[in-house]
Amino acid sequence: MPASARHASGASQTSLLFMFLAILVCGFSAGLSWELMHVFGRSASRTQIFFPRPFLLSTLLLVAGSVLLHLALRAVQQEQQRLFRKRLIWSLACAALFMGTQIYGLWCMFPEVRSSEEAETGVTAFVFALTALHAAHFFVASLFVCFVTARAFIMRYDHEYYWGVKVCAWFWHALGMIWIAILAVFTMVIR
């Protein structure tokens, strides 16, 4: 790899790291501001918020998919095509299960009986909005994994050309880290 290409690659990785850190800071700031509002008397109702158990399963699925995509990247770099495609399929399965458990977790956040008098714009709505935004971005990541998998089955990737797989894996890793930040905000809020 020429020196200019290595420098460009290093610069893009550095900018991705800074973007990730900025997202983490934003998430932490949102949680911290919520806590400060509660401490100084401007709290919203906390009576109906709880941690949905499906979020634990979806977190495990997200981590498993992230590991599988990383292993798929290694497999394509080592020209192990069959193993590469197998790991991509498993990561697609993790993505589908993640989306299902995420939607169920969002559904579990709200009480069975809803009325306009009991509408809440507090913590539940905030956490729901963060989680729904993450799920929308994860849907795009799932489409990206579908695209990479389809291209893998027509032999578009090998040990020399695997840039799409690498970007896909980094996108998934970034969404996993954002999910961890959302869970951190969630746990700060429900304390």
How is this structure best summarized?
The protein is mainly alpha-helical and 191 residues long. The chain is built from five helices and no strands. The protein has one domain: Cytochrome c oxidase, subunit III, four-helix bundle (Four Helix Bundle (Hemerythrin (Met), subunit A), Up-down Bundle), CATH 1.20.120.
Describe this structure in words.
There is one protein chain. The chain is mostly helical and 191 residues long. It has one domain: Cytochrome c oxidase, subunit III, four-helix bundle (Four Helix Bundle (Hemerythrin (Met), subunit A), Up-down Bundle). It is 77% helix and 0% strand. The chain is built from five helices and no strands. The protein has helices spanning 3-39, 54-77, 81-108, 123-153, 163-189. Helix 2 (54-77) runs antiparallel to helix 3 (81-108), helix 3 packs antiparallel against helix 4 (123-153) and helix 4 packs antiparallel against helix 5 (163-189). The longest helix is centred in the N-terminal third of the chain and has 37 residues, at 3-39. The protein starts with a helix and ends with a helix. The model is unreliable at 3-8 and 40-47 (pLDDT under 50).
Q: Which descriptors would you attach to this protein?
A:
single chain; 191 residues; mainly alpha
Mean pLDDT: 76
- Could you give the count of β-strands? 0
Q: Proportion of β residues?
A: under 5%
Number of domains: 1
Overall CATH class = Mainly Alpha
- Percentage of residues in helical conformation: over 70%
Distance, first to last CA: 51 Å
CATH architectural label: Up-down Bundle
Which class best fits the helix and strand makeup? mainly alpha
Oligomer: single chain
Inertia-based shape = elongated
Low-confidence stretches: 3-8, 40-47
CATH homology superfamily name: Cytochrome c oxidase, subunit III, four-helix bundle
| SS field, number of helical segments | 5
Largest sheet: none
- Which fold name corresponds to the CATH topology? Four Helix Bundle (Hemerythrin (Met), subunit A)
What is the H-and-E element order? HHHHH
Radius of gyration: 20 Å
